[in-house]
Amino acid sequence: MASFVHVMPLDDVIGHEGTPDCVCGPGGEPVETVATREPVGMIYHHHAVRPCHQWEASAEA
Fold first, then answer.
1. C-beta of residue 51 within 8 angstroms of C-beta of residue 13
2. Residue 54 and residue 2: Cα distance in Å, rounded?
3. Contact at 8 Å (CB) between 23 and 61?
4. In angstroms, rounded to a whole number, what is the distance separating the alpha carbons of residues 7 and 53?
5. How far is CA 41 from the centre of its chain?
6. Which of 14, 23, 36, 41 could anchor a disulfide with 3, C-beta 3.0 to 4.6 Å?
7. pLDDT exceeds cutoff 60 at 33
8. What is the Cα gyration radius of the chain?
9. DSSP secondary structure string for all residues of 14-40
10. What is the distance between the alpha carbons of residues 3 and 8, in angstroms, rounded to a whole number?
């Protein structure tokens, strides 16, 4: 897989790491091509401890 994107809350009570090992236990969702259904990336959606209003999507470094 080529790309990893993390969707993380910015105004949460804890800091989130841009990795799949973040303490919030982000869930991963594969991204596939329409034609071949090959995986080309993964989107990790991080879980907020409290409701948040500011979110950011960033590529994993």
1. no
2. 27
3. no
4. 13
5. 11
6. 41
7. yes
8. 13
9. S---SSTT-TT-PEEEEEE-TTT--EE
10. 16
What pLDDT, on the 0 to 100 scale, is given for residue 60? 73
Tally helices (H) and strands (E) across the chain: 0, 4
Q: What pLDDT digit, counting tens, does each position of 35-45 carry? A: 999 989 999 99
Distances (CA, A) of 6 to 13, 35, 36, 44, 52: 18, 25, 24, 5, 16
Measured in residues, the chain has a length of 61
